[in-house]
Amino acid sequence: MSRSLLVVALLAVSVPAFASSFAGSSAGASSAGSSASSDSSSGDDKVVLQARDDAASFVASEGRIRGARLEAALRQLRERHAGAREASDMQLAQAILAR
User: Fold this and answer.
1) pLDDT by residue (tens digit) across 40-63?
2) Where do Low complexity bias regions lie (predicted)?
3) What is the rounded CA–CA span in Å between residue 48 and residue 42?
């Protein structure tokens, strides 16, 4: 039980960091290369942010309702964060909502 709480706490910290990791670096970017990379970063952030409604439905239904946006966010979080690979879908959905 305490390991689960630790994972959720770590994810609650890492999901916001993931979602805002490029916010400061993309401000004021003027070259096409910088803009292109910040656009893709913004797109990555959007996947997690847009999954909030699906995450809420998933948590409220105790895992019975699985939306496409949540599935995309779970996949992305697990690809990019080692700690997310060990977390359950429920823990990640709760972390998305906690941000």
Assistant:
1) 455 667 999 999 999 999 999 999
2) 22-41
3) 10
